[in-house]
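Why should sequence recovery work at all? Because a backbone constrains its sequence more than one might expect. Tight turns favour small or flexible residues, buried strands favour hydrophobic ones, and helices have their own preferences. The token representation captures these environments compactly. In the example below, the structure is given first.
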């Protein structure tokens, strides 16, 4: 990567790969969550993620580049961590707390990527793609807040009580 445009394209391909992997991971997370609001949150965010992929494809189109991803070790690791939580815990509040933490790790990763892409798009004069990227960043922030609210208002306390009862 020798230019900001090279870096921008690499990160764009990285987040495109990540979003496509999340389309596979989110339904599994929803299936393994116990709290109905958490199941619904993962399911709703999966539906949003379809639009994230579509917007990224529009960004590639605006740039005159084919939409393709590059393997992202970070998202692979975050998804693997969610699979470990599912495999190493019983259904219930403790697993839900773990799934929320994994979901938030993914959201924070995505927020960092979209934030950088927006800044680089501004610097490189790709003004026509900023709105698409910003819309997705706003949705990622909303998903993170929703997960945080579920954790702090409900799940963490239940998980704490479960641990004391065991």
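From this structural description, the recovered sequence reads:
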């Amino acid at each position: 990567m020798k230019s900001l445009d090279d870096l921008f394209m690499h990160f764009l391909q990285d987040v495109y790969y990540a979003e496509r992997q999340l389309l596979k991971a989110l339904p599994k997370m929803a299936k393994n969550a116990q709290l109905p609001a958490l199941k619904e949150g993962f399911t709703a965010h999966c539906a949003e993620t379809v639009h994230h992929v579509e917007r990224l494809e529009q960004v590639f189109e605006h740039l005159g580049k084919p939409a393709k991803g590059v393997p992202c070790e970070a998202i692979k690791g975050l998804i693997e961590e969610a699979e470990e939580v599912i495999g190493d815990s019983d259904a219930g509040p403790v697993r839900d707390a773990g799934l929320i933490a994994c979901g938030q790790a993914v959201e924070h990763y995505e927020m960092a990527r979209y934030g950088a892409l927006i800044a680089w798009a501004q610097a490189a004069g790709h003004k026509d793609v900023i709105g698409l990227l910003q819309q997705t960043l706003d949705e990622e922030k909303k998903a993170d807040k929703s997960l945080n609210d579920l954790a702090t208002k409900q799940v963490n306390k239940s998980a704490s009580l479960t641990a004391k009862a065991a």
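A few observations help interpret the result. The mean pLDDT is 96.
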